[in-house]
Amino acid sequence: MERIYSLQGLRGVAVLGVVLFHMTAVEHKYSGGDILLPPLLDFFQLGVDLFFIVSGFVMVIVSRGRFQSVAESKRFLFNRVSRIYPTYWLYYGLTLAVLLVQPGMVNSTHGSSNLLMSFLLLPNDKVLLVMVAWSLLFELWFYLVFTGLMCFRERWLPALLVGWAAMLVIFNSVQDWQDYSPALQIMLHPYGLEFIVGVALALLFYSRLSARIPTSLVGAALVAALLPGIGLIGYYRLFDGVGMLRMLAVSAVFGTLILGLAVLERRRHLRMPAFLVAVGDMSYTVYLSHLLVLGVIGRVWQMLGARPDSLLDNVLFSALMMTAVLCYGWVGYRCFEKPVLDRSSAFSRRRFRLDGISGQA
What global pTM score does this model have? Predict the structure, then answer.
């Protein structure tokens, strides 16, 4: 599979943004009353949107040339599911252990969880036990739909995407997805547009047209996305809503960043910082674990370090929170997530190669 380092770097940016967004609530709860982190960090909840667009892009990378093959469709779905569940179950188990020992420490302000539905990552009307895992419900839905799309000819993919996008736009123009059952809320949510945009951008990236785009135009588009684009999203606080306006605006801005950086990288005009690529590699572990780590650091700080008469303790608290999240993320990725992924990938290559051979025979 082709490795585009700018995509990993953007994953790193996305997860760092989500961590910063949640750090503001932890600081407010445990810092002793004074606040350092600014409210504008609310913008970084859009890190999840960036994840969705990047995810769509990656789906094209891992599926190119593999359409209309039963073995490849099975392999695709297995790889996606094995990417999600084992690491998720680790943090589900840790969160469940905390819940059993100290129930008030887990989602105390969000109500109870359906433990079985949370374990299986199935839509339900209660908060998931691992609260941030709500985004995984969308990822799993996207993977299931894309597996279905792989049953058709690869050249039909643009038309199929247009049909899917049109359905979402028409539905959300006349109906409210929140009026439906939990499963339909996932299927009909305009978040699907972000995934579709990611897929469309990858198709453009691999098309002949992308080579004809002048580098100067790519640079100008990136500047426009970074300055007025992100500025307008923040000014109008589009992250406060969950409708089509947010999805379309964020898709346009973040999509420009993704495609522009990928094109510049391919033309050797860009090298993504190694730190962001490393954080991108461990972004899934960081995403799933950071609330647990922040909660532990917050309680320790409340006992030992909070000084309401000085902001210096807030600086130290914030630095400690981010350092702890990243240090644990590296350990969790290297000791659990990566070994599990390596083994599942090896199994996938053996198992579905045999399916492919028997199918051809």
Answer: 0.95
